[in-house]
């Protein structure tokens, strides 16, 4: 049976648009151990663009850990969850490019998406905030 990886992804913008970053953590689905934390500094962008950058960073890292994993994404962005699930259209050009990038990373693999309350997304939020604070990307 394939390994399950959970991605918790988030993004933030101080000013919307303003200084922005995405963040993600990759968690082992069986042990609940955090395997990796990543922050991606975006520069000046909207919160929604930052959220998508967090998703892309999480997907990239998860598939680097295990290309054959079953991936479940948890985000507090209803917009990204609904758009990536195919229930809502993507109208913003920058988000459309990032969604296409996420789909390219996913390829023919199945990914599930779940909206979670903000308080249940604290690790990814912390990664995004760290990246905004240091104004650079990181991976650990």
Task: Give the helix/strand layout.
Blueprint (H helix, E strand, L loop, with lengths): L3 E11 L3 E11 L5 E12 L1 H19 L4 E6 L2 H7 L8 H14 L4 E5 L6 H13 L3 E2 L1
Parallel strand pairs: 1-4, 4-5
Antiparallel strand pairs: 1-2, 2-3, 3-6
Helix pairs in contact: 1-3
Q: Can you describe this structure?
A:
By secondary structure, this protein is α/β, with parallel strands linked by helices. It has a single domain, classed as 2-Layer Sandwich (Nucleotidyltransferase, domain 5). The protein is built from 4 helices and 6 strands. The chain has a 6-stranded mixed sheet with strand order 5-4-1-2-3-6. α1 packs parallel to α3. The two termini are 27 Å apart. The mean pLDDT is 96.
Shape: globular
- Major sheet size, sense and barrel closure: 6 strands, mixed
Instruction: Bin the strand percentage.
Output: 25-35%
Number of strands: 6
- Pattern of helices and strands: EEEHEHHEHE
Ends distance? 27 Å
Mean pLDDT: 96
Number of helices: 4
CATH architecture identity: 2-Layer Sandwich
Spatial strand arrangement across the major sheet = 5-4-1-2-3-6
Low-confidence stretches: none
Percent of residues in helices comes to: 25-40%
CATH fold-level name:
Nucleotidyltransferase, domain 5
The total number of structural domains is 1
Which homologous superfamily in CATH is the superfamily?
A: Ribonuclease H-like superfamily/Ribonuclease H
């Amino acid at each position: 049976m394939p390994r399950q990886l959970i991605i918790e992804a988030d993004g933030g913008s101080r000013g919307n648009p303003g200084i922005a970053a995405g963040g993600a953590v990759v968690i082992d689905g069986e042990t609940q151990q955090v395997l990796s934390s990543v922050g991606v500094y975006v520069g000046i962008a909207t919160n929604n663009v930052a959220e998508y950058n967090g998703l892309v960073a999480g997907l990239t890292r998860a598939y680097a850990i295990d290309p054959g994993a079953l991936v479940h994404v948890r985000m507090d962005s209803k917009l990204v969850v609904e758009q990536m699930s195919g229930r809502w259209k993507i109208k913003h050009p920058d988000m459309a490019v990032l969604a296409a990038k996420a789909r390219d990373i996913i390829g023919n693999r199945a990914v599930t998406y779940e909206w979670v309350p903000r308080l249940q997304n604290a690790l990814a939020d912390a990664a995004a905030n760290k990246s905004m604070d240091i104004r650079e990307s990181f991976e650990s």
